[in-house]
């Protein structure tokens, strides 16, 4: 039997992992990436992260205007480059709550339970704090917890503690709750993503086709046999024994829908012939959301960002209600002002305590407007549609506002809240402020949901239901979003999916 050929679509957090594991197992791998090489210096220097939004390395997606977000659209940056969104993000390493995985396992099998994914996480990481029952040091992904905090970031942590929040030295340890220094994927001031850590060292062992956007998969008699892709303005085809979609929670469902895999009536309505009915493709879209508390410093200036150092170094996990079994809020703290669209800039230096929710109840969807790559995609997070989301958000915003009042910020930096501002007092006013200024935490998931029920898009081994030769391996498979940043879980999903596929291919 000859080597199996596999096409992997997307060189992001999960796709790079899948491609590497397949190469190691002896498969013939062709990797498609819609973007280019990661030559932009801003990718490698975390202090320049803001330059990447709206750049050529960003898909630059926008949602439709959303009622829950004051009828405004929201910018959703996504990586269009080798490295994917892990080339654009803040590289924060969060494994999230053990209960997240145990919830998945109830429906999708014990392999997804926390006790079984923790050893995989340990195998993935090279933790600066040394090996322990929670951490590994032999993995390909560097996790740094030893860098020096900027003074303003230390003051933010101190202010959280002064306001009654416990300091947690390791949120990837015993528990998530508390205020913590972020653990990040950085070595010597340089961002390390899975493209660099997994794939770049073996790039001679696979074929990588950049600047090539996959339009659809080729479906013949219930089996996927290849992909159609556009490169240099030409639509071309490539065939393989197996196709893996790792194009992310916004990309993978679009490819399925353009392939005629999805809700039949919706596809027909936009001129696509339905070939395989799967009603939930593109549904169950959800995301973590943020809204800023921005304070100016009146007695001393915050130094400018340093090369190779992120403007975010601390965050916090908290429960908005005592009866919750895990945190539902995760504010993230920045040494610079993070203005929402339409905000007037502050003249002096300022910092941002970005209040945030990580257990959204609202669900949205992705739909197409036509069959072509140039046809507009409609992305609707349906943000803040469920009233429970706003309740948790208001709680988080109040926590952030209280931090600004503490001595570590108010006295030591002369911190003074500018946004929302003193005139915003009641819960109703706070809710209105949040709706007007809500932004994404860059964690879209759920659009190719994993499950064992008839509505699931993929099964617990991440095979697309009812089809042979096709898997989805990325954050789109999450039935429900994790409690915290989704990059580490996406890498875990890459490792899990690769293991299933290698076993199925008999490699």
Architecture blueprint of SSEs:
Blueprint: E1 5-9, H1 13-24, E2 28-32, H2 41-44, E3 61-62, E4 75-76, H3 98-108, H4 114-124, E5 125-127, E6 141-143, H5 151-162, E7 178-181, E8 186-187, E9 190-191, H6 194-199, E10 207-209, E11 212-220, E12 223-231, E13 234-239, E14 242-245, H7 248-258, E15 261-262, H8 264-269, E16 276-277, E17 289-297, E18 312-317, E19 332-334, E20 350-357, E21 365-368, E22 377-380, H9 387-404, H10 407-410, E23 415-419, H11 427-437, E24 439-440, E25 470-472, H12 487-504
Parallel strand pairs: 1-2, 1-14, 2-10, 5-6, 14-25, 15-16
Antiparallel strand pairs: 3-4, 7-18, 8-9, 11-12, 12-13, 17-20, 17-23, 17-24, 18-19, 19-20, 21-22
Helix pairs in contact: 1-12, 4-12, 5-9, 9-11
Organism: Glutamicibacter mysorens
InterPro entries: FAD/NAD-bd_sf, GMC_OxRdtase, GMC_OxRdtase_N, GMC_OxRtase_C
Cofactor: FAD
Can you summarize this structure?
By secondary structure, this protein is an alpha/beta fold.
Which key phrases capture this entry?
507 residues, alpha/beta, Choline dehydrogenase, Glucose Oxidase, domain 3, GMC_OxRtase_C, seven-stranded antiparallel sheet, FAD, FAD/NAD-bd_sf, GMC_OxRdtase_N, five-stranded parallel sheet
Report on the structure:
- With 507 residues, this protein is of the alpha/beta class.
- It contains twelve helices and 25 strands.
- The chain has helices spanning 13-24, 41-44, 98-108, 114-124, 151-162, 194-199, 248-258, 264-269, 387-404, 407-410, 427-437, 487-504, and strands at 5-9, 28-32, 61-62, 75-76, 125-127, 141-143, 178-181, 186-187, 190-191, 207-209, 212-220, 223-231, 234-239, 242-245, 261-262, 276-277, 289-297, 312-317, 332-334, 350-357, 365-368, 377-380, 415-419, 439-440, 470-472.
- The strands form eight sheets. Strands 7, 17, 18, 19, 20, 23 and 24 form a seven-stranded antiparallel beta sheet that branches. A five-stranded parallel beta sheet has the order 10-2-1-14-25. Strands 11-12-13 form a three-stranded antiparallel beta sheet.
- Helix 1 runs parallel beside helix 12, helix 4 crosses helix 12 (487-504) and helix 9 packs across helix 11.
- The protein is globular.
- The N and C termini lie close together (11 Å).
- 54% of the residues are buried.
């Amino acid at each position: 039997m000859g080597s199996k050929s596999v096409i992997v679509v997307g060189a992001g957090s999960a796709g790079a992992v899948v491609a590497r594991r397949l190469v190691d197992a002896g498969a013939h791998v062709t990797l498609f990436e819609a973007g280019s090489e990661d030559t932009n210096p801003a990718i490698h220097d975390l202090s320049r992260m803001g330059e990447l939004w709206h750049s050529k390395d960003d898909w630059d997606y926008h949602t439709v205007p959303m009622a829950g977000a004051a009828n405004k659209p929201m910018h959703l940056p996504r990586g269009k480059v080798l490295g994917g969104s892990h080339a654009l993000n803040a590289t924060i390493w969060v494994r999230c709550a053990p209960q997240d995985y145990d919830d998945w396992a109830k429906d999708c099998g014990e392999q997804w339970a926390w006790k079984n994914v923790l050893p995989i996480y340990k195998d993935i990481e090279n933790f600066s704090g040394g090996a322990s029952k929670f951490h590994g040091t032999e993995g390909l992904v560097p996790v740094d917890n030893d860098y020096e905090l900027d003074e303003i970031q230390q003051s933010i942590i101190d202010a959280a503690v002064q306001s009654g929040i416990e300091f947690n030295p390791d949120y990837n340890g015993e528990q998530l709750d508390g205020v913590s220094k972020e653990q990040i994927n950085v070595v010597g001031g340089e961002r390390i993503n899975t493209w660099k850590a997994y794939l770049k060292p073996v790039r001679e062992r696979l074929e990588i086709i950049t600047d090539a956007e996959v339009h659809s998969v080729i479906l013949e008699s219930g089996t996927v046999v290849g992909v159609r892709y556009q490169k240099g303005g030409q639509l071309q085809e490539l065939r393989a024994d197996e196709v893996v979609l790792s194009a992310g929670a916004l990309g993978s469902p679009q490819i399925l829908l353009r392939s005629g895999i999805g809700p039949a009536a919706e596809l027909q309505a936009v001129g696509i012939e339905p070939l395989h009915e799967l009603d939930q493709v593109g549904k169950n879209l959800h995301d973590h959301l943020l809204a800023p508390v921005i304070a100016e410093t009146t007695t001393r200036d915050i130094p400018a960002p340093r090369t190779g150092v992120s403007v975010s170094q601390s965050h916090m996990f908290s429960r908005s209600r005592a009866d919750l079994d895990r945190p539902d809020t995760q504010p993230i703290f920045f040494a610079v002002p993070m203005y929402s669209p339409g905000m007037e800039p502050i003249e002096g230096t300022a910092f941002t305590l970005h209040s945030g929710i990580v257990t959204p109840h609202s669900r949205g969807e992705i739909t197409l407007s036509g069959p072509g790559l140039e046809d507009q995609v409609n992305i609707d997070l349906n943000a803040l549609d469920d009233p429970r989301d706003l309740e948790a958000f208001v709680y988080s915003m109040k926590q952030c506002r209280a931090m600004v009042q503490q001595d570590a910020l108010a006295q030591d930096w002369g911190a003074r809240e500018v946004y929302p501002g003193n005139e915003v007092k009641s819960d109703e006013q706070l809710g209105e402020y949040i709706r007007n200024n809500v932004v994404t935490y860059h964690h879209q998931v759920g659009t190719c949901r994993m499950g064992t029920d008839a509505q699931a898009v993929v099964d617990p081994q991440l095979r697309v239901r009812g089809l042979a030769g096709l898997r989805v391996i990325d954050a789109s498979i999450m039935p429900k979003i994790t409690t915290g940043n989704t990059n580490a879980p996406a890498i875990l999903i890459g490792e899990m999916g690769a293991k299933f596929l290698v076993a199925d291919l008999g490699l």
